[in-house]
Design goal:
By secondary structure, the chain is an alpha+beta fold. The chain has one domain: Pnp Oxidase, Chain A (Roll), CATH 2.30.110. It has helices at about 5-10, 15-25, 70-80, 90-95, 110, and strands at about 25-30, 30-35, 40-45, 50-55, 55-65, 80-85, 115, 125, 135-145, 150-160, 180-185, 185-190.
């Protein structure tokens, strides 16, 4: 089967959305927590969080165009802070429900049965039920002119996670923490590690570590 750009554009809207969203493979599953300047909390599921850099520590995520109201975006612009919270299998149904279009004055924490939690470092709420939580400060945003999406870059200010999932070499065992993954927009998966491999060097076969 070969599917061209013209074929994809001609697909029925929902079919096209499902098809293209599946192509990037397994994606991260996170809840992004924010708060408005009036103090109203917001929580939204994202499958577009990626590593940006380690020095300085940074992480980012892609947002859909702000041609319609995006509460996450508005809150980040108002306060400069947001949290990234890994989704685990104990909360994935509640996390999925945050994608519903609630009004701005309605908190997804309340509607979806999740608990806001705060630290002294940032204003935005964490998800208490998440095992790995990352607190960020907005440092950059970039519009993807091709389709109007926005890439948000945050400096990592703090990370809250269990002691026993951080290895001696700094490796964070997200599988041990129960973090799950997403394919397409609504398919949730547990993971099973195959192996960790040694740092790749020319002419040297990588070894399991």
């Amino acid at each position: 089967m070969k599917i061209t750009n013209e074929n994809i554009i001609a697909f029925e809207k929902l079919y096209r959305t499902n098809f293209v969203n599946s192509l990037s493979g397994f994606k991260s599953a996170n809840l992004i927590g924010t708060v408005s300047k009036e103090g109203k909390t917001n929580l939204a599921i994202f499958s577009s969080v990626i590593h940006v850099g380690a020095n300085p520590p940074a992480i980012g995520f892609l947002m859909r165009p702000v041609s319609v109201e995006r509460h996450t975006y508005t809150n980040i612009k108002e306060t400069n802070y947001f949290t990234i919270n890994h989704i685990n299998k104990n909360i994935f149904k509640k996390a999925h429900q945050t994608s519903a279009r609630y009004d701005k004055d309605v908190s997804e924490f309340d509607e979806c049965g999740l608990t806001p939690e705060y630290s002294d470092t940032i204003k935005a709420p964490y998800v208490r039920e998440s095992k790995i939580k990352i607190g960020c400060r907005l440092v950059e945003e970039h519009e993807i002119k091709f389709n109007g999406t926005i890439f948000i870059v945050g400096e990592i200010l703090e990370v809250i996670l269990p002691d026993d999932i951080v290895g001696e070499d700094g490796f964070v065992d997200i599988e041990k923490a129960g973090t799950i993954t997403i394919s397409e927009l609504d398919s949730y998966h547990e993971t099973k590690r195959i192996a960790r491999l040694s740092y790749a060097k020319p002419g040297i076969e990588p070894k399991e570590i």
